[in-house]
Amino acid sequence: MTTITEALNLKKKKYTTAGERKGLKISGFDLGNSPVELLKAIKNNPIKKMVLTTSNLTRVLAHCEFAYICSSLNLTAVSTLLQEKKVNIVAVGGPHGVVEDLGIALALMMKLKGITLPNALIKKMIAHSTAARHLITIGYREDVKFITQVDKYKVVPLYRKGVVTCFYKQG
Asked: 28, 77, 117, 170: least surrounded by Cβ within 10 Å?
């Protein structure tokens, strides 16, 4: 697990720092945990090395040997990669609930069984969750809109030993 102090030490080594606590950008960090903010930053200046620390996900990943990272944004790519594999699906959740993560876990599990949930239902599970409502109240409405998209990307991030890389690119 990367702590705030560890991340700030990596900033001294030219890492871009990204992270949040309770949804809010950490003081002294370059970026929060906003995908909209990250995409804008990348457009202006490519990021070579980045350290990320979050309230929930990075703490769970720290206990994994490796993990494929799935969201609504890459649901089909992940399900394609995982076909015929035995996997554990973990819905991380956090202080504002787990509904959106359970929704994605359900959509992934169903896809692995050959059943596709309607995109409108997946979008509703995310957009109407307590976590989404919290993000909207703290100014991240555009991020909620962004993360409700289904299958925007055809990549699967792989977490292994503290590093996330692009493991698989579909079609």
From this structure: 28
CA distance 33 to 19: 5
Q: What CATH number has the domain bearing residue 123?
A: 3.90.1560.10
Q: pLDDT at position 103, please?
A: 95
Cβ atoms of residues 75 and 108 within 8 Å? yes
65-105 pLDDT per residue, tens: 999 999 999 999 999 999 989 999 999 888 888 899 999 99
pTM tops 0.85: yes
- Domain of 83 in residue numbering reads as 70-153
- Minimal CA–CA distance to 111: which of 148, 70, 65, 61? 70
Nearest to 51 by CA among 17, 14, 12: 17
63 close to 49: Cβ distance less than 8 angstroms: no
Residue 17 lies in a domain: yes
What is the number of domains present in the chain?
2
Decide if 104 contacts 70 (C-beta within 8 A): yes
CA distances from 90 to 33, 50, 86, 87, 101 (A): 20, 24, 13, 10, 8
The predicted structure's pLDDT at residue 134: 94
| Same domain (yes/no): 137, 92 | yes
> Within the chain, which residues score under 50 in pLDDT?
none
